[in-house]
Amino acid sequence: MDTPPISSKLEQKLAGAESLLPRGAVAPELASKPTEKPSGTSHQKRSKQTAIFIQDECLKHRFIRSRDTSGIVERPERLRAVKIGLAAAISRVEEVGSNAGAEKIEGGSRIPEGSPSGDLEADDLSEALERMKIASTFNTSGVQLRTSSVSIRKSSATVDLLNHPAVKFIHGDVDGDVYLENLIIWARDSQENISKKGSEIPEGIPPLDLYLCPNSIDAIQGAIGAVCEAVDAVIDATRPSSEEGPRDSCERAFVAIRPPGHHCGEDTPSGFCFVNNVAIGAAHAHLNHGIKRVVILDIDLHHGNGTQSIVWQINEETYRQTLESEFSPGEEPPSKPGPQIYYGSLHDILSFPCEDGKPQLVQAASTSIHGSHGQYIENIHLQRYDSETHFWEVLYPRYYLALLYRARDFLDKTGGPGDDVMIFISCGFDACEHEYPSMSRHNRKVPTSFYHRFTRDTCALADKYARGRLVSVLEGGYSDRALTSGAMAHLCGMLDVPEASTDQWVNEEWWDVNNLTKLERATKSRKGSSRPSLGSSSEDWLSRTLDLLPVLDSKPLATTATRNCWVPPTARTLRERKKPSGSTSDSTTASGAGTPDLSSGTRKAGPGGTKKAAKSMTSSASSEIMSPPSSDNLAPRPPLSTQEDGNSHTPTGAGKKLPRVILHVRPPPETTS
Fold it and tell me: Which residues have a Cβ under 8 Å from the Cβ of 422 and sit 6 or more positions away?
């Protein structure tokens, strides 16, 4: 019996996924030219809206292997840190909007003082009012947003892992959904397996950066549901037929979810990731909305090996289908071509998953290929920067922006601007300057303002090629300060403000250390209080942030949930209830950058290998760096410094050799806000 070729597996998966779609769910072929603009001038004039998607189900994914969770960095509390940053960003934008131009109220609308309404063109006046008006886009417990630029969506969307077309497209198998079925079983039996074996993660899969509990599937399915809901909202708002669109429409979305996804391949969980949220979102856009060209920009500190392996397989199948149709022009193609995807990643080549220097992983994280074999992939390695001037005048414009230039080239080569284009950001904040030093211990970082400016540049790309469609999905980021500052800068970058007044609307001092310290103190949880307290001399933006935080964080982590959470039984008893003399408290604050120590264990790679050569792999650690391969189409790269492996850049106090552990880090006992 002949065995179907491997290259046809994705085609079979697509057929299986489409069989689950309701009739008429797949968008029809678009007849308009790629450069055709949306009909209706009012749709073009309307300022673009940004929506924040929150999914409380994501709080259910917890570590239950032991009572000690101090070494777990991928934790539910990450989402609160993100929400604090989002609330602060909204507060700042509201403050600037209310004070800009010495405005006064005329006829219920905001008009700049000294500018009578008759002096403005009708369209300009309408646009100015749209940008400046106070709009109640969200209301909970009497709290209203005072800006029309952003809305907050509390998502209740969820999916069925075994019956969702986009999930099956990415993680399904033509021979049965083996991985997805196993994942559900692992979570269901997690308590029992911990009691019997000491771990809920099966052999062959690294347990140090993965964990499950019985409610993890709810969190995973809720995360996917929120991403797909954001995709639907963004595309519905940008279809030419939608004209002005509904009042709560959005062209841009930030989805604050966990667990992250970009390390997960087709059936290889890794690095806290069990499903690939962004890849599933792209598949959903393709299957349900006819999106054919996708741009994925990954700015996590770590290479998204799972996303790249999935993108490679999809592009490979689409390329095969294209070649078959070209060589048989008179015949009906056996199936619709799949999507074309550009994947671009900016990451630290010395960190997970490449830290052990494994050739396959380092080579994959250094790939630069643009068109050959139907592949569009660009990897750029983060470099140390000496000052912010060095970063913004050298590294960012000469090297890091190549990620967007390559995306532009991909879109130009495949048809230019069009209604079939969608842009995603795999948005990790762990490259932030405020991340735990032990997480970014190779000192490949970016200043916090990177998340503002790169987002603005990505929005410009989306405006030109994708009708403004942009969905950003949370990936990594582990210290509270990195998450808060990064989310704050990122949301400010997504807001549609007049280019001429960007400096007036967005002040990068908002996320400097002084203001972050104030924010951390203001939002620090206090025992027995439902709301943090402010001093009498607090600033207005801090008070407003505390008003907005419950809107975003309406379901905070309850102490009862932790108290009732199952933990494995133990026969050990406490010998001494007093702390030894000279010891420090082992508690850490909820805010602040913190400097975690690395746990002393050694990561063991799984012995099972991968299903395919292109699948994501795991890694241990390495002190070596491999230069990227040469390419005729390779964008300019930063030179490899001769000091990179020397001691000239060794952080102060880093005298001891670092343990060989990648992502399992422990905040130090002495950390305080």
Answer: 231, 234, 235, 282, 285, 291, 293, 294, 295, 466, 469, 471
Q: Judge contact between 148 and 495, C-beta under 8 A.
A: no
CA-based nearest residue to 506, from 543, 470, 455: 455
Torsion of CA 48, 396, 444, 604, to 10 degrees: 60
Q: What is the pLDDT of residue 506?
A: 86
Per-residue pLDDT, 28: 31
Phi, psi of 53 (to 5 degrees): -105, 125
Phi (first) and psi of residue 314, to 5 degrees: -65, -45
Note the pLDDT of residue 74: 97
Q: What is the distance between the alpha carbons of residues 188 and 289, in angstroms, rounded to a whole number? A: 34
Within a domain: residue 13?
Answer: no
Instruction: Report yes or no on 225 lying in a domain.
Output: yes
Q: Reduce the DSSP state of residue 294 to 3 states and report it.
A: strand
Query: By C-alpha distance, which of 22, 17, 35, 34 is closest to 336?
Result: 17
- The count of structural domains within the chain is 1
| 484: CATH | 3.40.800.20
**Which is nearest to 350 in space by CA: 643, 666, 627, 665?**
627
Domain that holds residue 288: 53-525+539-570+601-666
CA distances from 552 to 87, 154, 360, 645 (A): 7, 8, 42, 44
- pTM for the full predicted model: 0.76
pLDDT, position 144: 75
pLDDT at 530: 55
Cα distance between residue 272 and residue 262, in whole Å: 9
Identify the DSSP state of 400.
I
In order along the chain (673 residues), what is the average pLDDT of each group of 10 residues? 45 53 34 32 61 97 94 95 97 78 37 36 44 40 72 96 96 85 98 96 90 98 98 92 60 98 97 98 98 99 98 96 78 78 98 95 98 98 97 98 98 97 99 95 96 97 98 98 99 77 77 97 73 66 94 68 48 41 38 39 35 37 29 40 37 37 41 39
Rounded Cα–Cα distance for residues 202 and 628 (Å): 34
Rounded-to-integer distance, Cα 469 and Cα 251, Å: 5
Catalytic residues: 263
Angstrom CA distances, 166 to 47, 158, 236, 277, 284, stand at 31, 13, 18, 10, 5
pLDDT of residue 336: 75
Q: CA-CA distances (angstroms) from residue 206 to 152, 193, 214, 273, 468?
A: 37, 15, 19, 12, 40
For position 283, what pLDDT does the model report? 98
Would you tell me how many other CB atoms lie within 10 Å of the CB of residue 658? 13
List, in sequence order, every beta strand (DSSP E) within 146-243: 150-154
> At residue 280, what are phi and psi to the nearest 5 degrees?
-65, -40
